[in-house]
Amino acid sequence: MNSSHFTRHSSNREDMTNEEEEEESPTELNTINSSGGFLTVSPDKLSLKYAGVGQHGHDVGVAQSNKPAPFKRHAYYFEIYVKDAGVKGRMAIGFTTDNFKTGRHPGWELNTCGYHGEDGLIYLGKRQGEAFGPAYTTGDTVGAGINYDSQEFFFTVNGTLVGTVSKYIKGPLFPTVAVHSQNEEVAVNFGQEKFAFDFKGYEASERSKQQIAIEKTSVPPELNHSLVKNYLLHFGYEETFHAFDLATNSTVPPIYVAQEDGVDVQDTAYALNERKILRQLIGKGEIDAALAKLRDCYPQLVQDDKSEVCFLLHCQTFIELVRIGSLEEAVKYGRVELAKFIGLNVFQDIVEDCFALLVYERPEESNVGYFLEASQREVVADAVNEAILSTNPKHKDRLFSHLETLLRQLMACCLELRLLNDGQGESLSLNRLLENNTCKRIKKTG
């Protein structure tokens, strides 16, 4: 067990959803690392115009973005608007690395990719292009994106998806724009204005494809039922277990069977009644009664007054006093019971956050207000439940339900996949998956 129990639901609530916000995104063109002799950039650094004569392949006017495309997300996208296709319409849009040789078109050099306007060809690190999409010219809006999940580049013209190609380039990639004939001029949109392409709709569609693929996976109902039953027993939800068992028309006796899918259900139901009672007490905020029950049934868990179980329960007692407005009593209790944990590094931050509840006139609206949510009681109940399970002499190391074990394996696999993709793509967010599925069900039944 670990003190992260006490705050895990608040971090799970954020659950990596702020990851995109933490990443910097391109905002303008980089005027330093550009082929400056062959182009002019507008004062706002969002437009470029060719200033050369376009006589050979090394006088291309090229500019990268000021920052690489963010990659801790499902996809990234930007657009250009062709103000003037110039004499020959040799504009290009794509992605390049930080060591890109300016003065050359994106796609001509290794580790670059570019969709060219003159002929509609895609160039993937070599001078010979491949048939890809339509040519584009004055008045067209062209977009380039990276789908980190499928590891593909995708391109659009006037709001319509043109096609995709494999993302063969590793490392940070910079949105890149090129012009290569007299009077060519393009404006760049890094998201400061509405895109012509429905990028949000594209992301939703791609995620929907993933969800459909997942839902097509066949799982025997009895396996699902077994996972749910094990979960309910593991966390001490005895009544819910019996109700679920009855609802699924199980022919297996509810608890006292020798084996269920290779698992000893009696072991899963270890101390079930005590765990059920303790969960109910903590769920109602009756922490003193829960402590008394633990001292009576499992004194070894609370004999050390500085144990984690004692810490969690003392914190919750303090929180319950704040909840009902007994601030003076909370201060007295904190000075006696929580003060003993001050100085212990593993508990220090949580103690300070608990005391911070006293500072706010409306603590429930503060940045530590999650302590006052009903779900915080569940977090404490889960920790106590885990501590009791650890006293099972047969399975001291079986501290997770089968469902939790599967989810941990899923998280490990997703992390490994991300590592194989250089850390690119969205991290797995169980909250986001649950929210998306909930929204889908509401739409279906609405």
From TrEMBL:
Skewed-composition ranges (Acidic residues): 17-26
PANTHER family in the record: RAN BINDING PROTEIN 9-RELATED
Name of protein: Ran-binding protein 10
Region (Disordered): 1-36
Biased composition (Basic residues): 1-10
Entry superkingdom: Eukaryota
Domain B30.2/SPRY positions: 7-195
Biased composition (Polar residues): 27-36
SMART domains: CRA, CTLH, LisH, SPRY
Domain CTLH: 271-329
